[in-house]
Amino acid sequence: MKRSHVKLFASLLLLITCISAANAQKIRNSYDWAAVTPFPPPINSEYDDQAAVLSKDERSIFFSSNRPGSINGSKDIWVSTRQTKTAPWTTPVNLGPVINSSGTELVRSITADGRFLLFQSDRDGGSGSADIWIISRRRTNNDLEWSGPVNLGSVINSQYQELASNYLFADQVGLRKLFFSSNKPGGLGGPDIYESTITDQGFSAAQDVLELNTASVETCFWIRDDGLEIIFSSNRPNLDEDRTYDDLWTARRNSVFETWTAPVRLGPQINSEGYQDVAPFVTLDGKTMLMSSKRPGGLGSGTFDIYMTTRKKSGD
User: Fold this and answer.
1) 108-158 pLDDT, tens per residue?
2) Residue 14, H or E segment
3) Among 48, 101, 206, 316, which one is least packed by beta carbons within 10 Å?
4) Contact assessment for residue 49 and residue 293, using Cβ atoms and an 8 Å cutoff
């Protein structure tokens, strides 16, 4: 991918109007997550269904699945819609061969304005075994009208695996960053979480977020829009890449210019012992989380299903 194309997308991202600090609901107090519940069909199926994100109005859900209709039986990006937040979901639709390939496409995040969606893929044309790609759209009311995928380029992607990604646009302090995970050399071990500042010239050299990482695996994650809360998956303290130990962890900070607190594992109502719990996504009001798990009780045997949980402020 030409550098000019990557710079163009970075410039476009600088123009995004994010929700202001005055209008965004801040989630600063202590919360308790409820026990997770699985999404019913047609979102979950007997196949792998994972890595789900919701649109701002919570009426569109994008996720990855290898269900029938996927290209070459691989994991593709699908979308389902509903008329209201309490209405049933429609039959999911594959985003098609421009977006999806015979390789793996895993949804990673969507910007708050719904215009940009980041995903991980090992498709042809990348830098390594898995890269981060972006698609965009002008009209957020059309869930099938996306641009062709653009690789984020060599500052972010490498010959190694780039796995998860999430933009942070903290407009109240003029901060714009890309967070992503990678197993490239120089980390603490396994995939680590990195951050890169976005400038008019594109992405800056990525820095390891040391306080979040260990010698274990740190990968898919969600970051709150103000940059003060993160939820991510890690198999710590396991020192190999046995992903059956993946759990969801969280950390916070008081300012985007401060370091993160020591990560804390979310409780047993979220994590299941001996099964993968990954791919967190939290809605804009901070009260609903989607996640993916291979725990028993799903629609398929040993496959990922999408789960949901809610939380409220302590004392509410």
Assistant:
1) 999 999 999 999 999 999 998 999 999 999 999 999 999 999 999 999 999
2) helix 3-14
3) 316
4) no
Alpha-carbon gap, residue 291 to 79, rounded angstroms? 16
Q: Which helix (H) or strand (E) holds 12?
A: helix 3-14
In this structure, the number of other CB atoms found within 10 A of the CB of residue 141 comes to 11
**Chain center to CA of 249:** 14
* 38, part of any domain: yes
Which pLDDT does position 171 carry in this prediction?
67
Rg (CA), the chain: 18
Range(s) of the domain holding residue 98: 3-19+29-313
Predicted pLDDT at 128: 82
Of 190, 169, 195, 168, the residue nearest 180 (C-alpha): 195
What's at 193, amino acid-wise? Answer: I
Which amino acid, residue 250? T
Strand order across the 247-252 sheet: 218-223, 229-234, 247-252, 264-265
User: Can you read off the two tokens belonging to residue 308?
Assistant: 């949901």
Whether the link from the prior residue into 40 is cis, omega within 30° of 0, is no
Phi, psi of 26 (to 5 degrees): -85, 135
Mean pLDDT per 10-residue interval, the chain, length 316 residues: 47 40 37 90 97 97 98 97 95 98 97 96 93 96 96 96 93 86 94 96 96 97 95 94 93 95 96 96 95 92 95 61
Cβ-based burial of 37 (10 A; exposed 0-12, middle 13-18, buried ≥19):
exposed
* Total-model pTM: 0.89
Question: Number of structural domains, the chain?
Answer: 1
Which structure tokens are listed for 240? 């190999």
Is 113 part of a structural domain of the chain?
yes
Query: pLDDT by residue (tens digit) across 65-77?
Result: 999 999 999 999 9
Q: Name residue 307's beta-bridge partners.
A: 38, 291
What's the rounded Cα separation, in Å, for the pair 264 and 311?
17
Q: What is the CATH number of the domain that holds 246?
A: 2.120.10.30
Does 273 reside within a domain?
yes
